[in-house]
């Protein structure tokens, strides 16, 4: 095949495409359900499969791993009506696995593919839009102090957004999805704090901080969770680390002072309690010792009387 007009889809030569008939319109998005005709050969020219021979187009959902990686990455570059030859090296095909006699291990595969149609009603942007609607519903419930209902809306929104195959998105789109994930996790943390569910809230703070490690709201709400769980040392460490990145954040500075006082009061109270316990234990031991001495003295007196 001439290298003229050959597109390197994978950017490493692993998946290449040569268009033999131009298509029209837009290309499929992740989660689109596509309908194709194809004929598959090995690089040695051995035909191993053909939807045209069966006169039955093949359908699959892009980005779900229902087909080889070469198809998941190659088909979304096509337009409706386009016919193209996809050449797929083993690492994007079946790798070192053989698929019967016709496809030995480490085979390069060649597919002539025609994109007949696709349904992108479930593409990632559509999913994101539905997720945003649920998030906004959660915000309305939160404003009404309906924290349980808000939690449910945020959880449903996050569940939707988690379905998006983020690894297949470009950098800008990844940032968009991750930004929404961060907001949802932080909103969930807040509603759970309001319901005294700090352990669950702490987990959502950590999820948000995995995406944005220096997020001010994430750091502050994490410290609130730790403080409410009487983990004052942890809360102080969290706020001290946060203030390094947000030195002018007054809320963090004030909360740090607050938790230092709470820690000192807590430690003092427990030291006094321990001192009381120790004193009580010493008194108990002394009484026990005195009782034992009295018993021994009485026993000795009895023994003396018997001897007389």
Automatic annotation (TrEMBL):
Domain of life (superkingdom): Eukaryota
Keywords: Isomerase, Repeat, Rotamase, TPR repeat
InterPro entries, alphabetized: FKBP4/5/8-like, PPIase_dom_sf, PPIase_FKBP_dom, TPR-like_helical_dom_sf, TPR_rpt
TPR repeat coordinates: 182-215
Entry EC number(s): 5.2.1.8
Region: Disordered, residue numbers: 265-308
Main enzyme class: isomerase
Domain PPIase FKBP-type: 31-119
Catalyses which reaction(s): [protein]-peptidylproline (omega=180) = [protein]-peptidylproline (omega=0)
GO molecular function: peptidyl-prolyl cis-trans isomerase activity
Identification of the protein by name: peptidylprolyl isomerase
Natural source organism: Anaeramoeba flamelloides
């Amino acid at each position: 095949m001439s290298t003229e007009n050959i597109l390197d889809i994978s950017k490493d030569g692993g998946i290449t495409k040569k268009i033999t008939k131009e298509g029209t319109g837009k290309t499929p998005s992740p989660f689109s359900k596509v309908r194709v005709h194809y004929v598959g050969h090995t690089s040695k020219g051995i035909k191993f499969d053909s939807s045209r021979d069966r006169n039955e187009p093949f359908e699959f959902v892009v980005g779900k791993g229902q087909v080889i990686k070469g198809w998941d990455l190659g088909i979304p570059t096509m337009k409706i009506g386009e016919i193209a030859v996809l050449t797929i090296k083993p690492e994007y095909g079946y790798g070192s696995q053989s698929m019967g006699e016709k496809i030995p291990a480490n085979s390069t595969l060649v597919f002539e593919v025609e994109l007949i149609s696709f349904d992108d009603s479930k593409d990632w942007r559509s999913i994101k839009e539905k997720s945003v609607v649920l998030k906004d519903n959660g915000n309305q419930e939160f404003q009404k102090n309906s924290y349980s209902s808000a939690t449910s809306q945020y959880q449903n929104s996050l569940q939707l957004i988690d379905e998006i195959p983020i690894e297949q998105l470009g950098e800008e789109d990844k940032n968009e999805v991750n930004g929404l994930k961060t907001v949802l996790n932080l909103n969930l943390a807040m509603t759970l704090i309001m319901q005294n569910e700090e352990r669950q809230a702490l987990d959502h703070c950590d999820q948000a901080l995995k995406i944005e490690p220096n997020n001010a709201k994430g750091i502050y709400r994490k410290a609130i969770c730790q403080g409410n769980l009487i983990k004052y040392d942890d809360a102080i460490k969290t706020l001290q680390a946060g203030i390094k990145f947000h030195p002018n954040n007054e809320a963090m500075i004030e909360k740090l002072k607050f938790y230092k006082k709470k820690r000192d009061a807590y430690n003092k109270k427990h030291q006094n309690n321990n001192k009381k316990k120790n004193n009580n234990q010493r008194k108990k031991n002394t009484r026990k010792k005195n009782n034992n001495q009295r018993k021994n003295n009485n026993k000795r007196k009895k023994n003396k009387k018997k001897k007389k």
